[in-house]
Amino acid sequence: MEPTTLGFLGLLALADSTSFGTLLIPIWLLLATGRPRPGRMLVYLGTVAAFYFLVGLLLSVGAGLFLDDIQRWLETDSGAVAIAVAGAGLIALAFWMDKRRKSAEQAGGGRLMRWRERVMSAETGSARPLAALALTATVIEVATLLPYLIAIGVMTDADLGPALHGLVMAGYCMVMILPALVLLGLRLVAHRAVEPLLQRINAWLTRSAGDWMSWIVGILGFLLIRHGAQHFGGVSELLDHLRGLS
């Protein structure tokens, strides 16, 4: 694999490292009362990394087995229409998510505050609820992690051997949790000094989490519509084709 490709994958992984599950929840855990317990944080982050690693391998294997068939179908008229329709659905979903977020904010915090309450309750119990929390968060957001999905496509196109593919995927998932691990280390060695930084990151992520998610979904929808329309020569030609079907 070329160094430039590895660098690109690294940038994608760093983008994924700032998501709700990979950074915001760990920061909430670090801001809990008292000094952080490294073992519990490692249970959470290890579960997140393991989940993304296994899902990435499954998606890569599926893409490798059916890639030729999928590509041939996507090059047909029906495949292009399906892509465009899926994109339109994602854009509608993005608007719905944004509207729901604004309604939740007006109601006093909404989903993020409920998630924070769940994190705090998990922090006070055994390690098992933290692992369950990690799985829940990653399952919810995995489909919206556009850099992660792009990275899987890049790895699949690189036609790596199974061992090297697994190694690159493992490295990608480790980079995803690296910022949270760095913050954990800083919190352990400079507990009070690093708290203002954690509070600032928490405030920024809390403000932007809903916007970010809806923007990612909307951008993905736009890219799918554009890809589907290109098959017909443009959006107007796609609409003409759809009118002809009706």
Automatic annotation (TrEMBL):
- List the InterPro entries: Gap/Sap
Keyword Hydrolase on this protein? no
Q: What domain of life is recorded for the organism? A: Bacteria
Membrane-spanning ranges? 6-31, 43-67, 79-97, 130-155, 167-189, 209-229
Alphabetically list the UniProt keywords.
Membrane, Transmembrane, Transmembrane helix
Q: Which Pfam families match?
A: SfLAP
Record protein name field: GAP family protein
> Which species does the entry assign this protein to?
Georgenia deserti
Write the lineage as a comma-separated list.
Bacteria, Bacillati, Actinomycetota, Actinomycetes, Micrococcales
